[in-house]
Amino acid sequence: MSTPSNLRRFREGLSLQFPMSLGVYDKYEDAQRAVDYLSDNHFPVENCMIVGTDLKQVERVTGRLTTGRVALGGVLSGVWIGLFVGLIFSFFGRGNTVGIIVSTVVIGALFGVVWALVGYAATRGRRDFTSVSQVVATRYEVLVEHKLAARGKEMLAQMPGGPSPFSG
Question: Could you tell me if 141 and 20 are in contact, meaning their C-beta atoms sit under 8 angstroms apart?
Fold first, then answer.
């Protein structure tokens, strides 16, 4: 459990007292490359941060969701849970080990398919697709403590073949 003092120390570790921008990059890899260049040249990078800005959520639709796919997913997750419970019971129980495992797998599969289909029916077709989503930044800003900003900008200006940052 987190205490207020632990949260405060965590936040302090993710902040700078007087941050100044060394540059803004379109790609995280470019911001990372800039900080790596600074590190390779003995710049005190513990005074730097890469901050993603202009966040957006991207959702990639991966397929159509049908009753069959929902049922199959429910069966598979139920089988895993049943197998786990069956193995636990077989360690501590007496009797037919294979019978215990098979019966818990079957019960788990039945429970999983029923639970999945009930959940799917509750949506009433409002979301008949599968997807993955993530939050991504559209720009990445490299920040540094104010007392090191001039030195950092000079060093990045000398970075060979590196992506040039937007003015920060």
Answer: no
Name, in order, each residue with C-beta under 8 angstroms of 123's C-beta and a sequence gap of 6 or more: none
pTM for this structure? 0.59
How many CB atoms lie under 10 A from the CB of residue 136?
Answer: 12
**All domains in the chain, ordered by first residue:** 4-56+137-157 (3.30.70), 66-127 (no CATH)
Strands (E), 109-161: 129-145
Cα first-last separation, the chain = 38
Measured CA to CA, the distance from residue 28 to residue 95 in angstroms comes to: 58
* Spatial separation of the C-alpha atoms in residues 3 and 96, rounded to whole Å: 49
Report which secondary-structure segment, H or E, holds 109: helix 97-123
Quick: pLDDT tens for 103-147. Answer: 999 999 999 999 999 999 998 878 889 899 999 999 999 999 999
